[in-house]
Structure formats: C-alpha cells, structure tokens
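Section handout 9: paired folding examples.
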Amino acid sequence: MRRILLAVGLTAALAPSARAFEDFTGTRSLGMGEASRAWAIGDEGPLLNPSGMTLAKAYNIEAAYSYAGRLSDNFLHASIVDNTSSFNLAGGLYYTYHTADRGGGVVAHGHEGGLALALPFGDLVSIGGTIKDLDLEDADDVAGHGGGLTFDLGATIRPAPMLSIGLVGANLRDLGNSQATRGIGYGAAWIPIPNLVVALDGLTRLTADNQTGRKGTSVMAGGDFTLAGKLGVRAGGGYDAVTGNGYATVGFSAISAVGAFDAGLREDLTRSEVSPGVDRPRETVVGLSLRLFVPAEQTAPTP
C-alpha cells in the first residue's frame, strides 16, 4: 500500500493512459467476452469488481489503449494495483482519458480517475469499493451533467477453490448522465486448473445509454488459458444490451518474468434494428496493454 501512495506521481505521468468509461473493461477482460467480474484480478479489479484485487498476490503497473468503433471512441488508461501488503489490504489507482470525434465538428472529451480498496475475510469472502471522479467535457457532457463523484461496491465469494462468484454495484451514486451508468454486475468463474479460467457474467443496466436509449441485461462469457506461463489465449462472446447486438472476442498475452503484452478484439456478429430495415452499426473494439510486474518486498521471518 505504501508503494501505491508513492506511485501517484507515476500514474499522473502516464495520465494519457488507464481505465475507461462504458466501453473500456480492460484488455484481458475484452478477450474473454468482457466477462471477469468473478475473477477481477489486477487491472480488472478497479474496473469491474474491486473485491477481485484480493484474488492474486501481485503488484502490477499497467498502461492500455482501446478503440471502440461504434462512436469512434479512444481510451487511454493507466493503473497501479498492489496486493502485496502484509495487512492483506489490496489497493489500486487508475486514470482513464476518453476522446472521440463524432463528425460534423462534434468532439467529446472526458476524464475518469479512481481509488479502489479491498479486504479479504479469510479464504471465503472479500469485499471492496472504488471511489471515482468523472470530469466530462464537450459531447461527453450530456445535458449539462459534467460528471462528479460516484462509487462501486463489490464482493467476491470462494465457496470452493475451483469456484468464484462475484457481485458488484456500479456507479451507485446517480450523476444524472449515462456516462456513469448505474448497474448491477454478477458472475461466476470456474478454475479447474491454475492456468485455466472459464467465466460467465451478467450486467443489468438501470439507466439508459445516452446514444441508443437502451438498457436491460447484457450477457457475456469467455475463457482464459495460459500455456507454460508464457502465452495466454482468450476467447468469448455475448449479447450487448446497449446495442442489441451479439458479438465474439479473442485475445492473447505474451508473458515474461518482468511483464506482459496483451491484445484483445471484439467484433459484432449480429445487428439489431433501429427501425424496420435499418440495422444498428456493428461495434468493433480493439485493446492493447503493457503490464509490468513489480517484485513484492520480502519480509524477514519473525524469530
């Protein structure tokens, strides 16, 4: 935790890079069909379920870029997640910058930053929360709602070593704009062996998207397999309630002892109708990230 506080300066230096708003879920989650709420380790913790930061003893620094084609959204993201504290308290900092050119001289800009903390209670349950601040400008400032403070609360339950269950409330303080869509996320992850995770998630949106006017429940599923600790491969898919489209995803990681390079791709396979004979545009999302693994400080054994 001490290193997290000292690393605020690094986060600011990477500011054009960390978590996004609605279309940014993290590169590894993207490759798994955006399903990671029950296994939200590393950067996915502050983004999807803060309690998941307790699942892996690690200290990671991550920088990421994501492009979402439906509205020409660009996300630059940076995060620091530390679960090496001797107090078992996990923490994370993140910053995300959003920009988009909607065409016709309409542009959008936004910033989101947050602090996440999580604490396990034995091996069975962990809880966590994320406080986040949004600053929205130009087209991101919907109907005069320029952002503000909101928060997420999450829990992860491990009834068995091979099973993890996640529940999270997102943006529980209503900011009056759908850049901070209120919702309830939930999921389950099956971990039959240490290098394989299979996940199934749901996300019920309680406020409507400001572009499509839709809400409802999205369903997503995917898997992550790591081969010999060097290569990670992912695949998944789901249904997006905001667009009404079905999609598929793929991803991979190249992993070394000091860090990793991750990539993910989402592509819509089906399209819903805006009106009879008129389909909604397909969504294409591309994500790239770099991770740095910081060795944990070694504590001398007590005599």
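Moving on to protein 2 of 2.
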Amino acid sequence: MEIFMGRNIVKAKLDIIFKKLFEDKNNEDLLHDFLSSMLEIPYEDIKHIVVENSEILPESISGKFSRLDIRMTVDNRLVNCEMQIAKENAFRDRSLFYWSKLYSGDLKSGDEYDKLKQSFSINIINFNEFDTPDFHSVFKLINPANGEQLTDKCAIHFFELKKINKQVNKNNRMELWLQLINAESEEELDMLQQTDVQPIQKAVMIIHQMSDDEKIQELARLREKALHDEASALSTARKEGREEGRAEGREQGRAEGREQGRAEVRNEMIEKMRKSGMTDEQIEKILSE
C-alpha cells in the first residue's frame, strides 16, 4: 500500500493524517463543514462539536491492529467516523457492531431508553463494497413493506473512494471532501485548490504543511508500515487456514474412502453367503463375531 507519491504528499486516506486534519483545534471549521457535507445536515444546524477521543498515544500509531477513528458528540448526536484502507471479511457486520456500541454505550445505568441519542456512523472505505455505482450508501431501520422508519436514531453511512469521480464539481461539497481524502498527487490537490471553496482550500493548505513536516512524514511512514504488517499477517493467517482446511479435507476424504471400501467388501461377503444358502441370522452371527 503506497501512501506517498510525487513530492511526498501525505494522503488524507491514511487514518493518522485524516485524524490530524480534523482534530486540530484550529481546524474546527473544517470538521464542521465536513460533517455538514457528509451527513447532509445544514451547516447552521450544527452548533457544537466535541471530539471524544482526541488523544493518540505514540505506540498506537505504529502498533498492529489498532483502529484510529474519530468519535464525536455533535450537538445531541453521537457520530463515529472511520477510514478503512483494506477490505476486511464481514466488514458490514463489523460496521453494524461498532454502530451498536456507539448507540448503546452512552446510556447510563438507570437511564430511560428514550435518552438514547441519534447515532451515526461514517465509514470511508478504499474499496468497493456495494453493488451500486453510487459512492454513497446509507442504511437505516425501515419496514421494507411500506418504507416506514422504525427510528431516526440509526444511520450507517458508507463512502466508497474507488467510485469517486475525478472531475471536480465545486457545487458538490460531499464529493469535494471525498476527492480531497482520495487525492494522491500534487495535481489533484491543485485542482481542488482552484475551486475557490474556502474549507477545501484550507484543507489543501494544511495537507501541504503536513507534507513538509518531517515528524508527520515519519508518523505516516510508521502507520503505513503497521497497516501493511496487519494486512500481511491477516493474509498469511487466511492462507494457513485454507491450507489446513485442505489438508483436513484430504485426510477426511481418505478416511471416507477407506470406510467405503470396507463397506463394499462387507456387502460382497453378505451376498456370497446368501448365495451359499445361509440365513440372515447365520450371516449376522458370523459378522458379529
């Protein structure tokens, strides 16, 4: 997985860069605009945003199998945003599980269920997951028979970067943010800079600044290595599992073959004994001895 191209532009699709871009106190306006665009909530309707997990321990950046997400309280809503580079098995189930933790985790002992808040998950994924040309898929709890919604407290969003249009449309703020996250070259960033959309221009400037920071470059390199090690370890485990399964299957096949052979010999013996005039009782007695 390559994270740098050209003049070593750091990529916002790398979770450590994504997290740093939106969690800096000086970039609250960017997070505000991003959430408004991705959740399709009017900008003015978002009054207050609190990032609940702003601290990243140094060891978590290079540690294997760690997840770097952004958990937020957005007014009276709970929002979790996560970047996912590599495709995982049962990713949809994992996303639903994480949403359920977000939804139920805020309820205190003794609280009534009506205290549960609207809980939204944002999954930005660098692979194709759904059978649709649209880059944005959102899932809610509805009755498929008539479309009636069970509750407005559940929404799980998926944004598939592989389906993003390369052409820049300054009037589509959601797509602009995803194009920024998906950008892998100086040229792509320049195209976004020329849109004159202020939050996007500021984000491009910050990515340039991070690209010139040797410490951030090193953090990105360590994170890239950790993700690569994780992907390699999972791939090796799956391969070993398949090999073990095939070996067990071969042994089971041989055992079944031996059992089938013994059954055929037994049947042939029974047939010969019957032809010689022996009764079933006599045959059963001989076979049981």
